Each structure stands twice: as C-alpha cells, then as structure tokens.
C-alpha cells in the first residue's frame, strides 16, 4: 500500500469538527460502508475489535428519533446513561473548557442564558442527530473492560477522520447513552451490550450560524512534558 502524504492526514485530523447542524442532503450508503470498512482498521488489544455499530437511516432513523423525543416529552431530562462519563465534581481546567464551548454555541445561536426554553430545544436537537440523515449507535459487550472502551474510541476517531476526508461531517453524541432503554428496544440491541453513544453523519448546513465553529485546543506545554535526559 502506498504511503499517505503526511499533510493529507494532518488536514483530515485538523479539519475534523463536531458539526451540530446538518442539511437533509442524503449520504450514499456506499460511502457509509466505505467509511466503516476503513474505520475497522483501528487498533485494538489482541485484535479484539470490540466495536458494535447500528446504522439508522430513513424510516428507522425517524422511528428512533420519535421514540426518544416522546420519552423526553413525558419525562424531561430523567433518562440516565448506564455509566459515568463526566466527573462528579467539575474543576479547573475542565470546567472552564466545558463552559466556553457552551457559551460559544449559545452565542452563535442567539440563545441568552435565561432563555431556558430555547436551550432545551437545542438540547433536544441531539436526539434528531442535529438533522443528519445518518445516525450511528455504538455499543460494546457488557463483559468487556476499560481497554476495549479505548479501542472503540480509536474506531470512532477513524470514522470521523474518514468522513472528513470523504465529504460528510460528523458529531459524536454522548446524549444517546441516556436513552439506552429506548434504543435497545427500537433496534433490538441485546441486554448484554452497553449503549455507549451515537454519532451524526451527514453534510453540514453551510448557512447555519454554527457553520465553521471551531473549538480551541491547548498548546503543547499545557499537556506535554518532554524528557530528554
């Protein structure tokens, strides 16, 4: 296999963004399959390949979205994931980084801090895959350990980088883990799997106020230590 130019790889990595407003333009299923075929080359401990993916489009997507939104309308904000993702107590620098992303998102959308109704409406957009025509639901066998979760993270990164290189945009979505019961029932996912997250896949809505929103990244001296002697 020929070597890939370093700048091509770098452009795909640096150019990847979590998009939160998609157009209705369909993503060809042959492209979705190509993305997933490439992503499966992610490394995994002893080649376990622990990732499981359910792809929802068209009527299946609409049914899942409707079922989750119905649950949210009857019990707003009550659903909980089967695992802890965020820390129990936020602290610096993570609290500031999280707050900054939320402030920038709401600023672009024109949502004021006190406007709880619009904030709630934006939150529910998660469960519509932000309008993307393709949704992925990722799960893992319940008896696997933390290292396999790392492997799935690398698989997900491959999906997002491959998508960025092929045209579609993406957004990983933890929010779907909260509605594991609805998802499990709707997609026939067995109880011996944990619903980890969702992912939106589609083409960005170019005229969206969220277009080209880029989050900041820390400089090397914040998170890297070099040891030379």
Automatic annotation (TrEMBL):
- What cofactor does its activity depend on? FMN
Return the InterPro entries for the record. Answer: Nitroreductase, Nitroreductase-like
Q: Which residue intervals define the domain Nitroreductase in the entry?
A: 13-203
Q: Which residues form a coiled coil?
A: none
Q: Which SUPFAM superfamilies match?
A: FMN-dependent nitroreductase-like
Q: Which UniProt keywords apply?
A: Flavoprotein, FMN, Oxidoreductase
Q: Does the keyword Ion transport apply?
A: no
Q: Does the keyword Flavoprotein apply?
A: yes
| Matches recorded under CDD domains | PnbA_NfnB-like
PANTHER family recorded: NAD(P)H NITROREDUCTASE YDGI-RELATED, NITROREDUCTASE
**Family membership noted in the UniProt record:** Belongs to the nitroreductase family.
Which protein, by its recorded name, is this? Nitroreductase
Lineage, broadest ranks: Bacteria, Pseudomonadati, Pseudomonadota, Alphaproteobacteria, Rhodospirillales
């Amino acid at each position: 296999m020929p070597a890939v130019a370093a700048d091509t790889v770098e452009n795909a990595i640096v150019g990847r963004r979590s998009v939160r407003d998609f157009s209705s333009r369909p993503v060809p299923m042959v492209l979705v399959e190509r993305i997933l075929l490439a992503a499966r080359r992610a490394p995994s401990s002893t080649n376990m390949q622990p990732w499981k993916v359910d792809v929802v489009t068209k009527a299946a997507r609409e049914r899942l979205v409707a079922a989750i939104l119905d649950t949210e309308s009857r019990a707003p904000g009550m659903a909980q994931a089967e695992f802890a993702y965020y820390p129990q107590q936020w602290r610096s620098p993570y609290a500031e980084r999280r707050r900054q992303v939320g402030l920038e998102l709401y600023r672009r959308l024109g949502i004021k801090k006190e406007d709880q109704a619009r904030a709630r409406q934006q939150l529910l957009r998660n469960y519509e895959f932000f309008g993307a025509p393709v949704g992925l639901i990722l799960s893992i066998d319940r008896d696997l350990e933390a290292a396999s979760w790392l492997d799935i993270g690398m698989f997900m990164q491959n999906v997002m980088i491959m998508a960025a290189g092929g045209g579609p945009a993406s957004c990983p979505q933890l929010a779907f883990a909260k509605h594991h019961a609805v998802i499990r029932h709707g997609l026939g996912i067995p109880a011996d799997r944990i619903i980890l997250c969702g992912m939106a896949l589609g083409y960005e809505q170019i005229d969206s106020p969220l277009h080209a929103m880029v989050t900041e990244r820390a400089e090397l001296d914040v998170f890297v230590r070099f040891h030379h002697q």
